[in-house]
């Protein structure tokens, strides 16, 4: 078994829906290249109307001061642990220095909002030296949940890829009313461990979207023993699973012959052989190049699942469709709200109808908890206090306050 890996995911990845919002310049290389999932490539001697064709973002030479920048909307907002600025194949034309800022923003702001005076950018990587033709990784310690990042390149030059690694922190508002893929990376689902990643990694199994080739799934080596392969997943949100989807698309001659699925608590993630795993789907034969849907009736909420693949082979995607457990919804709500940057947290409460001064008081009292959902010292009643408290609980716990106040606008946000 490979080592357990509650690994960070690339929050900016195209797989998760990341996009480049704007850039100061892209004269030689398109800004969209920054988020291409694969590694950069370069073929010397290929020229187009803009010069040598590069697999990255490259700006013109600056002659009058200033620096270049690019803004990226994260496909899945979250807490950033590291930023990788990849300058591979840029040797005499990479930026000398870089800096990275991030912000948290409600809705879907456009370039004008993100470059205007009201944008609340927070520095997460100070101005630092870059080296050419290599992956430059910078650790990030800011604990906030961000939705956008801005890369500044001093003074100009080329960057092949931008990776923003971290943990997804989903916005849970309204999810309590929905049936979702509890396993999806979009909601924070992770591959914790797998028996074998010889040809391609199991981390692809819970990506959003469909695989487009066999190489975008999980494929193990051929077994010559009597064992079988497995994958351990941590669900992004614990819940009651109602339907399992096991997809073998593009695996025609090397798909797994059968699968079995078990559910358990998060603490079981590294204990594949534990007897406390509960069966969700008995060992079931599957077909090559087929999307299988299995109705299941596992009533207890689970936070982790184990999929056994017999005897080896390949799968392209796995989905766990179900409803979020009430307790998990509350935990997600407090985690999300406590991690928001101050400006975004205040904007969330003001949008729920809470007066600006009361919203500021609530935000300044974070971290809020289920045992203390209001700041210490806020017990004396204030005007609108009861209504404000109901609106706050709608945000944090998904409760529907009387009359619906504080809920409609919550469900309108991503």
Keywords:
single chain, 414 residues, mainly beta, Jelly Rolls, 3 domains, 8-stranded antiparallel sheet, 22 strands, 13% helix, 34% strand, disordered N terminus
| Beta-strand percent range | 25-35%
CATH C-level category of the largest domain: Mainly Beta
CATH superfamily annotation of the largest domain: Galactose-binding domain-like
Termini separation comes to: 37 Å
User: What is the mean pLDDT?
Assistant: 91
Shape: flat
Main beta sheet strand tally, sense and closure: 8 strands, antiparallel
Helix content: 10-25%
CATH fold assignment of the largest domain: Jelly Rolls
- What is the string of SSEs from the N terminus onward? EEEEEEEHEEEEEEEEEEEEEEEHHHHH
Radius of gyration (Å): 23 Å
The CATH architecture of the largest domain comes to Sandwich
Which class best fits the helix and strand makeup? mainly beta
- Total individual domains: 3
Task: Explain how this protein is built.
There is one protein chain. This protein has helices at residues 111-115, 326-339, 342-351, 356-364, 385-397, 408-411; strands at 9-10, 19-23, 47-48, 51-52, 57-58, 68-86, 97-103, 122-129, 135-139, 145-154, 158-159, 161-168, 179-181, 190-194, 218-219, 229-247, 258-264, 278-285, 291-295, 302-310, 314-315, 317-324. The model is unreliable at 1-5 and 404-414 (pLDDT under 50). The chain has three domains: 9-168, Jelly Rolls (Sandwich), CATH 2.60.120.260; 175-325, Jelly Rolls; 341-411, no CATH class. It is 13% helix and 34% strand. With 414 residues, the chain is mainly β. Helix 3 packs across helix 4. The strands form five sheets. Strands 1, 2, 6, 7, 8, 9, 10 and 12 form an eight-stranded antiparallel beta sheet that branches. It has six helices and 22 strands.
């Amino acid at each position: 078994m490979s080592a357990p890996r509650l690994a960070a995911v690339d929050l900016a990845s195209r797989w998760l829906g990341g996009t480049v919002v704007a850039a100061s310049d892209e004269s030689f290389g398109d800004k969209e290249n920054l988020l291409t999932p694969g590694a950069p490539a370069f073929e010397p001697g290929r020229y187009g109307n803009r010069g040598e064709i590069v697999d990255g973002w490259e700006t013109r030479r600056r002659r009058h001061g200033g620096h270049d920048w690019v803004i990226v909307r994260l496909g899945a907002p979250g807490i950033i642990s590291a930023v990788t600025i990849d300058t591979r194949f840029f040797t005499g034309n990479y930026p000398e220095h870089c800096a990275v800022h991030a912000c948290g923003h409600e809705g879907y702001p456009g370039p004008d909002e993100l470059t205007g005076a009201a944008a609340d950018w927070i520095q997460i990587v100070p101005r630092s030296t870059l080296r050419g033709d290599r992956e430059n990784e910078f650790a990030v310690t800011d604990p906030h949940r961000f939705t956008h990042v801005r890369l500044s390149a001093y003074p100009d030059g080329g960057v092949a890829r931008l990776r923003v690694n971290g943990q997804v922190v989903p916005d849970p508002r309204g999810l309590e009313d929905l049936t979702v893929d509890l396993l999806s990376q979009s909601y924070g689902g992770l591959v914790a461990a797998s028996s074998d990643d010889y040809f391609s990694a199991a981390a692809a199994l819970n990506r959003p979207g469909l695989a487009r080739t066999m190489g975008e799934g999980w494929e193990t080596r051929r077994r010559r023993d009597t064992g079988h392969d497995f994958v351990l997943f941590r669900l992004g949100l614990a819940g009651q699973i109602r339907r399992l989807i096991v997809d073998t698309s593009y695996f025609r001659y090397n798909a797994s012959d059968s699968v079995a699925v078990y559910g358990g608590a998060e603490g079981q993630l590294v204990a594949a052989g534990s007897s406390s795993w509960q069966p969700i789907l008995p060992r079931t034969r599957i077909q090559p190049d087929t999307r299988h849907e299995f109705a299941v009736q596992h009533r207890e909420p689970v936070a982790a699942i184990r999929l056994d693949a017999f005897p080896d082979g390949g799968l392209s995607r796995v989905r766990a469709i179900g409803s979020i457990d009430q307790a998990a919804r509350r935990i997600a709500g407090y985690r999300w709200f406590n991690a928001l940057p101050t400006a975004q947290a205040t904007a969330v409460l003001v949008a729920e109808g809470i007066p600006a001064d009361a919203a500021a008081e609530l935000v300044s009292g974070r971290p809020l908890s289920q045992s203390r959902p209001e700041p210490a010292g806020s017990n004396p009643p204030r005007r609108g206090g009861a209504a404000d408290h109901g609106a706050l609980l709608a945000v944090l716990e998904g409760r529907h306050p009387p009359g619906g106040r504080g809920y409609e606008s919550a469900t309108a946000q991503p």
